[in-house]
Each structure stands twice: as structure tokens, then as C-alpha cells.
Amino acid sequence: MKKVQLTGNERLLLSIIEHKEEPINIKELVNITRLNRRTVLGIIESLRKKGVPVVGKRNGKTGIKIATTQNEINESCMTLAQQSAKMLRTSAYLKTSDLKHWKEHIKTM
Fold first, then answer.
1. Residue 3 lies in a domain
2. Where does the record place the Helix-turn-helix type domain (predicted)?
3. Is 103 left (phi over 0), alpha (psi -120 to 50) or beta?
């Protein structure tokens, strides 16, 4: 596999994630790095593109970590696929919104 160059921020985040015993959540990464949330999420995506197995953990101690098993990668991929499907459904609902008459279809309590 070809070696890839990491940016300074990618090295910083990777170092933090690698040295944590437990998964670390995005809010903690934002506080530690002083980077904004979008930047942190973008760096995580970039690390994944470069082959770093950063996975999200949704049960127990939630957050992100470096995968150590194929099962962790599979579980994270399944979660991402489910989130993607939900976003596509939401997009479809939005596309069919009636800009002129939507208020007429909403019943308020």
C-alpha cells in the first residue's frame, strides 16, 4: 500500500484518537483541538479516505476509535449505511414538499 501524507490536523486528531483507551466523542475532540465541529468531522472523513480505520461506536461508551477488528469495521459500516438510507428518505420527503400549500396540510393542536 502506498504511503500517504497526513496534514498537521490529521496527525493531531489521529494521535489523540490512538492514545485514548476508550472511544472519544466529537465534542471532546473539539474541546481538545480547539477546531470547530465541522472541521473535526472533515478530518475524520479525510483520515478514513486515507485508509485509517476510524470507526464510530454507538453502544456503551460512544465516540470514535481506531478499529482493531473486522467486526468493528463491519458494525460501523452498517451504521453508516443506515444513516445514509435515512438521509435519502428525508431528501425524498423534502423533494415532494408543496411550497405553496404545505400549511394547509398541517393540523396544529
1. no
2. 11-60
3. alpha
Q: Residues 16-50: pLDDT tens digits?
A: 999 998 999 999 999 999 999 999 999 999 999 99
Say if residues 4 and 50 touch (Cβ distance below 8 Å): yes
**Residue 34, domain member (yes or no):** yes
Per residue in 52-89, pLDDT (tens digit) is 999 997 776 789 999 999 999 999 999 999 999 999 99
- The Cα 68–Cα 79 span in angstroms is 17
Count of structural domains within the chain: 1
- Could you give the C-alpha distances from 9 to 43, 46, 69, in angstroms and in order? 7, 10, 25
Which is it for the CA torsion 6, 8, 11, 17, positive or negative?
A: negative
Host domain of residue 23: 8-96
Containing 65, the helix (H) or strand (E) segment is strand 63-66
